[in-house]
Design goal:
about 300 residues; alpha+beta; Arc Repressor Mutant, subunit A; ten-stranded mixed beta sheet; about 35% helix; elongated
Length: about 300
Amino acid sequence: MKPTSQSEYTRRIERVIAAVTKNLEQEQELPSTATLAAVANFSPFHFMRVYRALAGESLGATVQRLRLARAAHLLTESAAPISEIAGRAGFETPQAFARAFRQHFGVAPSDARTADLAIATVGVSPVAVDANSVIRVDVVALKPFRVVVMNTQGSYSTLDAVYRGLYEWMARRGVVESIEGIWGVPKHDRRDTPEADYAFDCCLATSAEPPAGEGVALGELGGGAYLRCLHQGSFDRLEESHDALLRDLLSRPEWQLRDAPILQEYLNDPDVTPVEELRTHVYLPVRHPETVLER
């Protein structure tokens, strides 16, 4: 893999914005996530996370700003009804358009035609990819290990109860002493995912092999190289450590992301540990031809 500079990452983000802008101007359906990932030359598996880490905002936030810029242009350059402009800019209802427009520009769409509305070119300022990361990042190899896993979808706040249920499930099978660690696999970024759609795998590493059942399955995590950092503090800010790891990766052009999930290893018990003292290892899957440290 050839070294990739900050300017190259900027160009990749700009290509995504150009692709979305073109479709909005032509009033076509927006490109799919897979298409935009290809435009930016990133794997679809991690594209949404990489975009946010580089751009400093979600792809959805960028698209919203592009829609509003398009609408503002139509308002000032045409006499089309506001309801028509809302639809042409991609808003589902005129009411949703009016709320978003007022929040962004500070005026109602109906007043925009007479206001001296400044329509800035929409872009993003990619977050700096710094080779001298402010977080400590280790390169480790995780041997594959067995886990019992319960897939969840919905509120993040219910995960504590799911983990307690997993412990009880292990206790009923007489294998609670085999538990070797507490792990989690976030399938989405909570900042960008509706709560009802948020998927997360609750996992307990185990040396036993209990029969699956009652919504609990056996699985395997690890296998391969990872960048690892230590997140200290609230679980609510774990995505910030995901961003930091992704930016650290992009400062190491010899490394590449693997199409495998980010892993979280919880090092202490949140039921008895103050929030500010919580410690979580975050693992980002990567590949590299050279030897890495074995965990």
